[in-house]
């Protein structure tokens, strides 16, 4: 495999190297970066965990993960062997200070071998309660203080609420500089999400109409067809608002609504995104019930199989008040978006897995066609599908072929699969490469995370303090509670859904 000679030697310290995230996402992503010659000549992946592995048995675990989860299927023997030479396992407990000294000497060994100071990326793929202890212990053995070569990647969730997010920021910033902290939101690594920047700011066509004069409303819908699976215990303490809205959905919303940045600099782009969050209207106590809907799934049938209701899932409180569905109507108080509603929704056990942004334009000012011509009339709509289909569709009216003047909506489609031959990289490939390069554009800054928490805190507090009497209120394999339809229908709109043809990708 050709190495990327321009990249500096790099060490990935994967805390939680034996866990699900490492096996399913991180190692397959690093393997693909290696196959595609993005990895430097000198690199090391150090897996950390308490489980009793040696290098060989650890590598066996990771190979199993690649064979199961890699986008290119089973690893080829010689390529895997080349890659796996770079993997080491260090049995260690994050609470044990002495283990950090072992980490330090391992790193020193590589440094001597390579005769060069490596970039060190501490990837925290562990439960959030370990973030503070790991950061503090890294500082004690001086594995944190080199601003240029040491980085820390923090997985989601970043905090449980505004207060805990602030506390974590204070702790991290006491040890690391902001340019060392990479708060990950893997949604931002997705091709279609990144393409929002290209689509908006590399084309002259859309920006002039990207405002309240032409856009009627925006929808962002992130629905999942699965339930909580084996994450019931974790999810019951979290819920849809924390799990999806505070991070992924608000980040996507920022990309739709941000002002044009003056350049492609990470700070500039992140500044423009924070501007959006700061301009979003916070709900007063009386506004929450008119602008938000929460739901929880009951049992139902999915593809002919009976599935359990949320409260019967393993690890979930049988009287749980946790929402598995959330829909909210936001406004952004600035010149561009005044009075344009942004509807967002997310839910588990929904009819379809799909992440879609729908931008509906205002109607024509005057309709010249007779009524019978325009029975299936649809205002222009731009639909950006993030997953499973990766596409952008512009819906326009066209004359149907025939002797009558009959109009119907048709799609002008840009589809990634049909347009590009290369396989699309996984979000984690993009993000890990950016962390190696020191590019923070797709990572969240401390103030961004706090502003997003600040926005949703009134809703969280209201939902937690008032137990829902209607839960469970939607059945598995449905489109969520009826009240979610009403939230948007009372403004004269309906939720956009798209026929999904392709098998889903996680
Ligand atoms: P997991 O499968 O439960 O793995 C947890 C890891 O933490 C294991 O490697 C475990 O290793 C390690 N660990 C636990 N206690 C430890 C200790 N005292 N000392 C050293 N290591 C310890 O969890 P996960 O699903 O990988 O998730 C990890 C993090 O990523 C979480 O913050 C999660 O929210 C986030 N995340 C996960 C996913 C995903 O797809 N899984 C997606 C997005 C975000 P040992 O048991 O060997 O000690």
TrEMBL record:
Catalytic activity: D-glucose 6-phosphate + NADP(+) = 6-phospho-D-glucono-1,5-lactone + NADPH + H(+)
Record EC number: 1.1.1.49
One cellular component term from this protein's GO annotations in UniProt: cytosol
Keywords, alphabetical: Carbohydrate metabolism, Glucose metabolism, NADP, Oxidoreductase
Any one biological process term the GO annotation gives: glucose metabolic process
Domain Glucose-6-phosphate dehydrogenase NAD-binding: 13-195
InterPro entries: G6P_DH (IPR001282), G6P_DH_AS (IPR019796), G6P_DH_C (IPR022675), G6P_DH_NAD-bd (IPR022674), NAD(P)-bd_dom_sf (IPR036291)
Active site: 248
Domain Glucose-6-phosphate dehydrogenase C-terminal: 197-495
Pathway membership, UniProt: Carbohydrate degradation; pentose phosphate pathway; D-ribulose 5-phosphate from D-glucose 6-phosphate (oxidative stage): step 1/3
UniProt-annotated binding residues for NADP(+): 50, 93-94, 156
Top-rank taxon: Bacteria
A molecular function GO annotation: glucose-6-phosphate dehydrogenase activity
Function in brief: Catalyzes the oxidation of glucose 6-phosphate to 6-phosphogluconolactone.
Cross-referenced NCBIfam families: PRK12853.1-3, zwf
The protein's name: Glucose-6-phosphate 1-dehydrogenase
Organism: Pedobacter psychrophilus
């Amino acid at each position: 495999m050709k190495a990327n000679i321009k990249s500096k030697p790099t060490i990935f310290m994967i805390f939680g190297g034996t866990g699900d995230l490492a096996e399913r996402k991180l190692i397959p992503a690093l393997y693909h970066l290696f196959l595609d010659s993005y990895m430097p000549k000198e690199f090391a992946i150090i897996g950390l965990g308490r489980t009793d592995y040696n290098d060989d048995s650890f590598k066996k675990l990771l190979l199993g993960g690649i064979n199961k989860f890699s986008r290119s299927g089973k690893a080829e023997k010689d390529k895997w062997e080349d890659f796996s030479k770079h993997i080491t396992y260090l049995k260690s407990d994050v609470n044990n200070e002495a283990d950090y000294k072992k980490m330090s000497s391992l790193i020193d060994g590589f440094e001597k071998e390579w005769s060069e100071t490596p970039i060190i990326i501490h990837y925290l793929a562990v439960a959030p309660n370990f973030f503070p202890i790991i950061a503090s212990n890294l500082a004690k053995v001086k594995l944190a203080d080199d601003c240029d070569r040491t980085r820390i990647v923090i997985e989601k969730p970043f905090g449980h609420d505004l207060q805990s997010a602030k506390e974590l920021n204070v702790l991290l910033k006491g040890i690391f500089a902001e340019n060392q902290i990479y708060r990950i939101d893997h949604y931002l690594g997705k091709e279609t999400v990144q393409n929002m920047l290209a689509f908006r700011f590399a084309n002259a066509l859309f920006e002039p109409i990207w405002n309240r004069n032409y856009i009627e409303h925006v929808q962002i819908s992130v629905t999942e067809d699965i339930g909580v699976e084996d994450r019931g215990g974790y999810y019951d303490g979290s819920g849809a608002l924390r799990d999806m809205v505070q991070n992924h959905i608000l980040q996507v919303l920022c990309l739709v609504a941000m002002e044009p940045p003056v350049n492609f600099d990470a700070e500039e782009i992140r500044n423009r995104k924070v501007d959006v969050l700061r301009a979003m209207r916070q709900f007063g106590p009386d506004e929450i019930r008119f602008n938000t809907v929460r739901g929880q799934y009951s049992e139902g049938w999915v593809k002919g199989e009976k599935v359990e209701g949320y409260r019967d899932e393993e690890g979930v409180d049988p009287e749980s008040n946790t929402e598995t569905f959330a829909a909210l109507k936001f406004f952004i108080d600035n010149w561009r978006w005044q009075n344009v509603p942004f509807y967002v929704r997310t839910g588990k056990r929904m009819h379809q897995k799909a992440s879609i942004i729908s931008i509906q334009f205002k109607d024509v000012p005057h309709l010249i066609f007779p009524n019978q011509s325009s029975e299936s009339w649809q205002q222009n709509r731009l639909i950006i599908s993030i997953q499973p289909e990766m596409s952008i569709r512009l819906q326009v009216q066209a004359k149907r072929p025939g002797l009558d003047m009959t109009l119907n909506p048709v799609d002008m489609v840009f589809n990634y699969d049909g347009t590009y031959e290369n396989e699309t990289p996984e979000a984690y490939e993009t993000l890990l490469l950016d962390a190696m390069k020191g590019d923070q554009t797709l990572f969240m800054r401390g103030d961004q995370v706090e502003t997003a928490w600040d926005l949703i805190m009134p809703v969280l507090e209201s939902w937690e303090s008032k137990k829902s009497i209607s839960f469970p209120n939607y059945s598995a394999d449905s489109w969520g509670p009826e009240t979610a339809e009403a939230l948007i229908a009372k403004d004269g709109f309906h939720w956009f859904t798209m026929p999904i043809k392709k098998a889903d990708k996680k």
